[in-house]
Amino acid sequence: MDPARGVVPRADVLVIDGRIAAIGRRLRAPADAAVLDLQGKLVQPGMIDTHRHMWQTVLRGIAADWTLGNYVDLMFGRFGPLFTPDDVYAGSLLGAIEAVDSGTTTVVDWSHNMRTPQHADAVVDALLDSGARARLAYGNYAEPAQDWVLRGDIDRLRSERFPTADERVTLQIALDVFTADFPERPAWTWARDRGFEITTHAGVVGRQPADLPERLRDAGLLLPSTTYVHATTFTDESYRLIAESGGTASVAAESDLHGGQGYPPTEKLRRYGIPTSLSVDTVTWFSGDMFHAMRATLAADRGLAHLRAHEQGGLVDINELRALDVLAHATIGGARSMGLQDQLGSLTPGKRADIVVLDTSSPHMTPMINPVGAAVLQASTSDVDTVVVGGRVVKRNGELLGNGFARARRLADASRDRLRAAAGEKLWREALNPSGR
Ligand SMILES: [Zn+2]
């Protein structure tokens, strides 16, 4: 992912004090260095997920057959209000550990169930305890943004808990706009004036204005640091404005295809030159690893191109979106979206040592011909051999180190049971087999 280097065969990676110090053949390491023998394996940058609602992890898989309408009714309307600070702690902890286990070293935890200050503190605790690099995107879908934002709990959280040691966990704000008259504008202005970077679900079909960037421009709120999540159905002018502003998009292809948020917009993003990252969204519904996110993105983009060509009686001659492109979206694209492209997203001397090693000895990785193709289209979480976050080894030989997962599993099982009891069996059954709206 470092264009100056490309794919380097048989290289060493030297890490000193949490940062990459050198990459090359036969590097000399300090005498007291720990040496990991990774011969025959693939070494890549840690992946970056720019939008995942980790508080929901304790309800993994409950939404398998949901539509977006089911999600709004059931997750936001029925289950969300039942979550206590202990539940969001358990979900965020397990979600971050799951991310690291699957080679996602950095997650933007789109935490939009901050009903009380205790919920917010619980999420910070979980992210610090997890070992992952994370950005807490503080949100609260339960109230209009103009109400909860102006109460200022995120200011309290920032002054009490940030910056964290080694800045492994950082903070931003998660704000959505639902109607064309933009009643959330005071909240956006407040966030801008206090220097909070904004991530926003935007351009979702049937739920959000297709010209949000135009409204943001008119309000002086079109900011270079904003991440537009989904970004499926904007006007051409809105895509142009995002590109011009320096904003970025987070493509949640699996989510868009299952839920109906709109078609994954990779073709539009390319056309307008909008920097792109990828995201999982929620494991209540979809896969929790970036391998699936990369595959869904690539398949959606190519599938649409084929369909269009076939409808015209023709064929696609060449695939525009390449495996290398989506690996870039999943790594350096995520770093760019977070404004951390100088720190994360590629194996480059000086950057933080967030490193993922893929084993290549399984039948589905044999024989090795195309390392990028293998990482994008063949690999899965079972191949993630070693994970390093900021120079600290958190997974080795396919096993998470420490007892963090055992604890997270206990807490998540207990949270699931508590939420089921609180929901009641009728709602639980409806969630598992939704009858429609
Ligand atoms: Zn989302």
UniProtKB/TrEMBL annotation:
- Hydrolase found in the keyword field: yes
Q: Which domain of life is it from?
A: Bacteria
- Gene3D superfamilies listed in its UniProt record: Metal-dependent hydrolases (3.20.20.140), Urease, subunit C, domain 1 (2.30.40.10)
Q: Name one Pfam family in it.
A: Amidohydro_1
Q: Which UniProt keywords apply?
A: Hydrolase
Using the record's annotation, list all stretches that form the Amidohydrolase-related domain: 43-394
The GO molecular function terms of this record are:
hydrolase activity, acting on carbon-nitrogen (but not peptide) bonds
Q: Which NCBIfam families match?
A: PRK08204.1
Q: What is this protein called?
A: Cytosine/adenosine deaminase-related metal-dependent hydrolase
Q: Which organism is it from?
A: Kribbella italica
Mind giving the lineage of the organism this protein is from? Answer: Bacteria, Bacillati, Actinomycetota, Actinomycetes, Propionibacteriales
